[in-house]
Amino acid sequence: MAVFKCKMCGGTLNAADGINVCQCEYCGTTQTLPKSRDDITTNLFNRANSLRLSSEFDKALETYEKIVNTAPDDSEAYWGMVLCKYGIEYVDDPATRRKVPTCHRTLLESIMADVDYKSALSYADSKSRRLYSQEAAEIDRLQRNILDIARRESPFDVFICYKETDEHGRRTQDSVIANDIYHQLRQEGFKVFYAAITLEDKLGTEYEPYIFSALQSAKVMLVIGTKPEYYTSPWMKNEWSRYLRLMKADRRRILIPCYRDMDAYDLPEEFSHLQAQDMSRIGFINDIIRGIRKIITGGSTVYEHSSAEDRSPAPQNLDPEKMLQRIEIFLSDKDFENASRYCERVLDNDPECAQAYFFKFLAENSCSTPEELYRPKAITFFATRYISGYGFKTDNEEIFRTRINYVLGHSMKNALAFSKGNEHDEIEHVYEGVVSIVRNDIAQRERKLEEQEQQIVMAAYERQQADVQKLEKKVGRKRIKGILLLLAIISLFIALGLFSDDNSSGALFIVFFIGLLISSIIA
C-alpha cells in the first residue's frame, strides 16, 4: 500500500489501493490522492508536497512536472502544479479549526482559466473533480479579494528584496543594508517598498495583497544579499522569481542583483543575464540612484551583462527599415547575437514591430530564414522541449496550443499579436507550419517509443520462452533418469532374491541392473 503525506499538514495518510479520496486523521481534511501508486511516483509526490509545504514552490513545481512526464493522466500532479503556481499554503482557521488556503503568489489570471486546473478536472474521477472544484472556488475567491485590495494601493517605484532574519531569528546584515538604501532612495523622492517599514502597519493581516501590488507596480527591483544561500531562501526567491516572470512580459522592468562579501559567480543562475552591482564598491549607491532615476523617467539604462556598446542607449532617430535590413544581413551571415541585439534596438523605439519580433524568433533559434525552422534541428528542439515539459499529449487542441505557444516563446507570440494584413498571414503561415510539423514529430516519437517498448517486451517474452523450453528439457531428462534408476533398484532386489535359488537368473538381473544404472547416469 502506497504511503502519501497530507497536502495540508504533512501527516501520513492511510490510503488503501483504489481509493482516490481520503480524510487525514491528523487535521481532518478530506483530500484527493494520486492515481499512480508505484514507489518512484509515490516518492516524487511526497517530495513535491514536502517542498510546497516548505514554500519551495518552484522546486515543487519542477517535481510535479516530472510526474506529469511519467504519468500524464494523473490529475493530482496537475493539481499540485496549480497549487505551486498560485503559492497555496494551508493554514488553520481559528474560527472553524479547519485548514484553509492562503495565497503567496497572486496571478492576474483566474484559477478557473488555468490550463493545468482544466487538465486536473479532465483526468479526475467524479469525487476528485468535486473536491478540486470546491478548492478552486475558494482559491478564486481568495485571489479576487487580494486583487481588490491591491487595486486600491498606490504604485511603487522600487521594490527592495532582502532577507530580514537568519536561521536563528536574528536580524541579518542584509536588512541593515536594505534599510540604509531605503532611506537614501526615499530622500531622492522615490516611493520604495521595503517590507520592514512598508508592512509594519499591516500586522495581523495577509501581506500578499500588498506584496503583489508592489511587484506589479515597481519599475525596479533591488535584490540584496551577502550570502549565496540568502538569495535562494524560500520567501526571497518567491519575490524575485515572480518579478523575473513580470520582466518577460514587460521589458521596461529592471532587476538589479546587489551583492557584498561574496563572489558574483555565486549568485543564482537566473541572474546570469543581469549585471550585478557590488555594494562594497565606492560610488555604488550613487550609481544605483542615477540608474533608477533614468529608468523611472523613461531613460534607457539597461542593467544586463553585455559589452559597453550593448549598454549604450539606442539611437532615437533610427530608420526602422534600415535597421530591419541590417538584421536580415546579420541573419544571412548567421550572426544571430547581433541580429537579436538589433531587434531589441528596433523594439526600444517601436515595441509593436512584428517583423522585429519575428526576426528575433529566428535569431533565438539560430535560423537565417523561415524555411530553416522546418528543418530537423529546429523541429527536434521544439518537440524535445514540449515532450520534456508535457509528455506526448496533443489531442486536446486548446491545451496543446497553450503549451506549444509557451515552447515557441514570447517572440513568436508577439509577432503574431502585432502583425497585420499580409504580414500577419505570412507569419501565421510559418507558425502553423512549425506547429504542424512539431505535432507530427511528437506523434512519430511516441509511435517509435511504443515500438521500442513492444520490441523490448517481445524480446523478453522470447527469452522467457527459451528458458521455459530449456527447463522442460532439463525436467524431462531428470524424469527419464529417475525412472531408469528406479528400474535398476528393482532389478537389484530381484537379483538378490534369485541368487539364493537360481544363480543364472540372478546373474542375468545383475547385468540388467548394471545396464539400467549406466543408462540413468548417461541420461
Features:
523 residues; 20 helices; two-stranded antiparallel sheet; five-stranded parallel β-sheet; alpha/beta; 60% helix; single chain
Helix content: 55-70%
Helix run count:
20
Structural class: alpha/beta
* Cα-to-Cα separation, first versus last residue: 49 Å
Low-confidence stretches: 300-317
Instruction: Please compute the radius of gyration using only Cα atoms.
Output: 35 Å
What shape does the CA trace take?
A: extended
Number of strands: 11
Mean pLDDT: 84
Spatially, the strands of the biggest sheet line up as: 8-7-9-10-11
Main pleated-sheet profile: 5 strands, parallel
Q: Approximately how much beta-strand content do the residues carry?
A: 5-15%
Describe the structure.
The protein is built from 20 helices and 11 strands. The protein has 523 residues and is of the alpha/beta class. The longest helix is centred in the C-terminal third of the chain and has 79 residues, at 421-499. The chain is extended and about 125 Å long. 29% of the residues are buried.
Short recap of the structure:
By secondary structure, this protein is α/β, with parallel strands linked by helices. The protein has helices at residues 39-53, 57-70, 75-85, 115-123, 126-151, 173-187, 195-198, 208-217, 228-231, 234-249, 284-296, 308-311, 320-332, 336-349, 354-364, 376-390, 397-408, 410-418, 421-499, 503-522; strands spanning 3-5, 12-14, 21-23, 30-32, 88-92, 99-103, 158-161, 192-193, 220-225, 254-259, 277-278.
